[in-house]
Amino acid sequence: MYTTLLAIHSLTRWLVLPSLLFAIQRAFRGWYSGKAFSTFDEAVRLAVVTITNIQVSLGLVLYAISPITTYFSHHYQVAVHVGEMRFFGIEHAFMMIMATLLISIGSVRVKNKRHDQEKFKTMAIWFTLGLLVILIAIPWPFSPLAKRPFFRLVY
């Protein structure tokens, strides 16, 4: 179950990133061009929040059953000094929860704005902040924090 869930979590990032980039692109375009905030923009906002929340939920389940985080919690004094252990034991989870909160807060703030330009501006700023945190927290193959493949398959 763990390896399957890990593969799903790894692949789901490829839903989060493009949907978030698409929403940000629409938000900046709408903000700078003076467009109306359409029902499609609303659907994009909701889709991004939903996909992001699904991803963080999968991550929290993984956090609870992962052998890395289990080791980290049982051997904290040693594990906190090992970069990759600390990354998955604290940093990755914390930053992804923070990114999800930024995106969710931004989404709620968009919903409460009255004017279209305020909606686009709010979505652009909050979603971009969330994306920046996500990009830092993903264990990319080239990351100095923890290296993982672009695609993790079940084996």
From TrEMBL:
**The organism of origin for this protein:** Spirosoma radiotolerans
Residue ranges annotated as transmembrane are 6-24, 44-65, 85-103, 124-142
Q: What is this protein called?
A: Cytochrome B561
The superkingdom of the source organism is: Bacteria
What keywords are assigned to this protein?
Membrane, Transmembrane, Transmembrane helix
